[in-house]
Amino acid sequence: MITVKNPGMQTTVQDRGRIGYQKYGISPAGPMDARSFTLANILVGNTHNEAGLEAAFTGPTLLFEEDNVIAVTGGDLQPKLNGQNFPMYRAVSVKKGDRLSFKGMNGHGCRAYIAFAGGLDVPVVMGSRSTLIKNQIGGLEGRSLKTGDRIGFLKPVSSYPDMDQRVIWPERFGAKTITLRVLPGPQDFEFTRDDQLEFYWFDAEITNDFDRMGARLNIRHPLKGLHDGNIISDGIAFGSIQVPTNGQPIIMMADRQGIGGYAKIGTVITPDLPLLAQAMPGDRIHFIKMDIRTSQNVYRRAVSELMDLNQELNGVREYI
To answer: Looking at residues 17-44, what average pLDDT do you find?
Structure first.
């Protein structure tokens, strides 16, 4: 069990998300950076869908009331254990009475993921433990953590015999300009040739309107489109790039709505979404157009890499 001594700016319980309920207006939620989340679970020997914590910007202070194995991945919020530097991307045994804290961002990503061997004991709501704040469901009462919260472990593990091997090369974040690969459509035909050139040739800037629902961008010349940008509402995926009537794109994120009525010029491919999730307002984005076959091959390679790591560390080759 852990006790929350300081919740940080926004710390939530997340698993891989609540699948199958968008048609009822319930967003999937889940981690903004699914790759970092999955890597943390693999390091501590969990299945890829076990619930952990997503900490944004500052990170929480947690007091451990029993032994367990944990890992911290994602953005470098400068984690510390009992005041000493804590190694990221490595499984670490923690003891009863230990205190995990975070100093805060140092320019290398803004979201950290904390996995606990055996997972967190919070209620399953609609097949998931993920927190969806806008609907107030999942996690702890559908909200961010607060001081005094206590969360139990499902099946804690005090140590593994191969602890020294449970370490991987850290991911790198913090570039002020990121490149995101985009699969065009489904309404790219709504945009003129000049719009397409503007979108793919010139960088966009991430504005302050960036949260778990979406990232609003600012581009040099707003996209005009062939019509007013409104369409009959249809489904929205993680990474869909909507263009509302003001011509400034919005990339939809983990807590997005289920449907939307603005034309979508494209969708950021899944393996590139962690780069956006770890970016900050003021950072710039360069978009590159991809075809469906290449996009699928990139995705297969990303999944295969995680499966290989899980096989190496845990002897399990589950689909991730």
So the answer is: 94
